[in-house]
Specification:
The protein has 237 residues and is α/β, with parallel strands linked by helices. It is built from 9 helices and 7 strands, in the order ααβαβαββαβααααββ. A 7-stranded mixed beta sheet has the order 3-2-1-4-5-7-6, sandwiched between helices. The protein binds S-adenosylmethionine.
Length: 237
């Protein structure tokens, strides 16, 4: 039975501020470190190049931002944007003292539905596990289309409900028996219970392609990964 999604933007912002202290640990433990592989795939599909100006939208604790920064190098710029200040504080702390330094990153507190960037500004963009969480997906895609340069790409990585019933049952078992109990141990049960309704209302890969084209992108393709439990939507302006 699909769960109901009745969270406001303020609820979602509060959830991500609260889970900031445990977010990285849970990501690493629950994906057995595989989230780094999926994030690297998203960065490759974004086609970011050395010297580019890039956006990592809904950057959270900044993993994708860091991968993008390594890709664009010291002549490029990467903006990590998120509306949860506790996540941004973690992201900034994580790159302090790293060698070689990641000086090309700027952290910006911003709403994905109303981006404070000029039209046609970015050469490439990524978004990891963010689109499922915004309250207005078409508007977020339209904002991404607006701020990208013509021909630029955004690679959007997220969880999905898989098509296969067997994989879907496995995913539900994993969420109910592994993810929520582990989050509960860390005092974050309600925050991680939010995953189920967010997955239920998330468009399928085919629907995401249509939404991307409707938002104004000229090309859209969706790559299912991890047996359809995850996917990357690649949109070209
Ligand atoms: C699941 S986390 C993903 C973080 C990171 N991209 C990663 O892959 O680990 C989702 C992030 O989206 C942010 N977010 C959700 N809605 C947003 C919005 N409307 N504007 C900006 N950030 C938003 C949350 O604050 C949170 O940090």
């Amino acid at each position: 039975m699909p769960t109901q999604f009745n969270y406001t933007s303020t609820d979602i912002q509060a959830i991500f501020n609260r889970i900031a202290p445990v977010y990285d640990r849970l990501n690493n433990d629950l994906s057995l470190g595989l989230h780094w592989v999926w994030k690297q795939m998203a960065v490759s599909w974004s086609d970011a190049n050395p010297g580019d100006t890039c956006l990592d939208l809904c950057c959270g604790s900044g993993d994708l931002t860091q991968l993008l920064a390594k890709r664009v190098g010291s002549n490029g710029t990467v903006i990590g944007a998120d509306f949860a200040p506790a996540q941004l504080a973690n992201a900034a702390a994580k790159i302090e003292g790293v060698y070689p330094p990641l000086n090309c990153i700027d952290w910006v507190e911003a709403d994905a539905l109303n981006l404070p960037f000029a039209d046609n500004y970015f050469d490439a963009a990524t978004m990891g596990y963010g689109l499922r969480n915004v309250t207005d997906i078409p508007r977020c895609l339209a904002e991404l289309d607006r701020v990208l340069k013509p021909g630029a790409k955004v690679a959007i990585l997220d969880f999905h409900r898989p098509d296969s019933q067997i994989v879907r049952r496995f995913q539900q078992w994993y969420l109910d028996r592994i993810v929520v109990p582990k989050a509960t141990q860390l005092g974050m049960m309600d925050e991680y219970a939010y995953l189920n309704p967010s997955l239920d209302r998330f468009p399928t890969g085919a629907e995401q392609v249509q939404l991307g084209l409707t938002a104004g992108f000229s090309h859209a393709i969706h790559y299912p990964i991890a047996s359809g439990m995850m996917g990357v939507l690649v949109l070209t302006k």
